[in-house]
Design brief:
Strand content of chain A: 35-45%
Structural class of chain A: mainly beta
Number of helices of chain B: 0
Mean pLDDT of chain A: 97
Order of helices and strands of chain B: EEEEEEEEEEE
Distance between the termini of chain B: 40 Å
Largest sheet of chain B: 7 strands, mixed
Structural class of chain B: mainly beta
Low-confidence stretches of chain B: none
Largest interface: A-B, 28 and 23 residues
Oligomer: heterodimer
Largest sheet of chain A: 6 strands, mixed
Shape of chain B: globular
Number of helices of chain A: 0
Mean pLDDT of chain B: 97
Helix content of chain A: under 10%
Low-confidence stretches of chain A: none
Strand content of chain B: over 45%
Order of helices and strands of chain A: EEEEEEEEE
Chain lengths: 108, 122
C-alpha cells in the first residue's frame, strides 16, 4: 500500500522558520494537502493543492512540492502554531488515500 | 458556515456493532462526496470510508472492508457508518468530513466534524 513519510517531530524557537517534509513516490503527479491538528481538536485544512491556502489561514503557512517531496513551511513560527501536522495525498491511481504519520511541531 | 455533527459513539464489546451518524448543515449536502476518517488514541489519521454524492459509489480502507458500511440520506443531510464485527483496534475517534475534488481529481477533506469516540472493549 502507498505510504507518505513525515518526520515524527520538528522543534523551533518562536520567530524561526519551521519546515515539515512529506515524501511519497506519487507526489510528482499528485497534489499534497496539509492539515493542522491542535490538541483535542479536529484537523483543519491549512494547505491544498501543494501551495494554496484556504481563507483564514495565516500567510506565514505556505506549501511547496518538488519531485517526491512536499514541504509545509511556517515562517516566523508562533506558539499558537504548536500542533500535529499531517500531509495527505493518494497513490498515482487515486485509489489509495493516505495520510502521513504526522509531525509534532514544538515552538519554544 | 459548514457544520458537521457526529453522533452514536460509545462503548461496545468486541464482535459487536455500532452505527455512527453525521448531520450536516451550512452547505448543499447532496453536492459533496463525504468521508469518515478515524484516529486511534495517540495515533495518526486513517481514512476509513468514502461515498459519492448520490451514494452510488462507496469506498473502504482494507482494514474495514466487509465489516463497515457507509451510507447517506441526502434528504435528511445525514451520513452514516454501520460498523459490525468490531475489534479492539477499531477503537478511535471517528470524524465525518466533507470532500471536495482537487485539481488533479484527488478527493480531499476540507471540513471536519468534532468527532465521535468509539471504544471497543470487554
Amino acid at each position: 500500500s502507498y505510504e507518505l513519510t513525515q518526520p515524527p517531530s520538528v522543534s523551533v524557537s518562536p520567530g524561526q522558520t519551521a519546515r515539515i517534509t512529506c515524501s511519497g513516490d506519487a507526489l510528482p503527479s499528485k497534489y499534497a494537502y496539509w492539515y493542522q491538528q491542535k490538541s483535542g481538536q479536529a484537523p483543519v485544512l491549512v494547505i491544498y493543492e501543494d501551495n494554496k491556502r484556504p481563507s483564514g489561514i495565516p500567510e506565514r503557512l505556505s506549501g511547496s512540492s518538488s519531485g517526491t517531496m512536499a514541504t509545509l513551511t511556517i515562517s516566523g513560527a508562533q506558539v499558537e502554531d504548536e500542533a500535529d501536522y499531517y500531509c495527505y495525498s493518494t497513490d498515482s491511481s487515486g485509489n489509495d488515500r493516505v495520510f502521513g504519520g504526522g509531525t509534532k511541531l514544538t515552538v519554544l | 458556515e459548514v457544520q458537521l455533527l457526529e453522533s452514536g459513539g460509545g462503548l461496545v464489546q468486541p464482535g459487536g456493532s455500532l452505527r455512527l451518524s453525521c448531520t450536516a448543515s451550512g452547505f448543499t449536502f447532496g453536492s459533496h462526496a463525504m468521508s469518515w476518517v478515524r484516529q486511534a488514541p495517540g495515533k495518526g489519521l486513517e481514512w476509513v470510508s468514502g461515498i459519492s454524492t448520490r451514494g452510488g459509489s462507496t469506498f473502504y480502507a482494507d482494514s474495514v472492508k466487509g465489516r463497515f458500511t457507509i451510507s447517506r440520506d441526502n434528504s435528511k443531510y445525514t451520513l452514516n457508518l454501520q460498523m459490525n464485527s468490531l475489534r479492539a483496534e477499531d477503537t478511535a475517534v471517528y470524524y465525518c468530513a466533507r470532500e471536495v475534488v482537487g485539481g488533479d481529481f484527488t478527493d480531499y477533506c476540507d471540513h471536519w466534524g468534532q468527532g465521535a469516540l468509539v471504544t471497543v472493549s470487554s
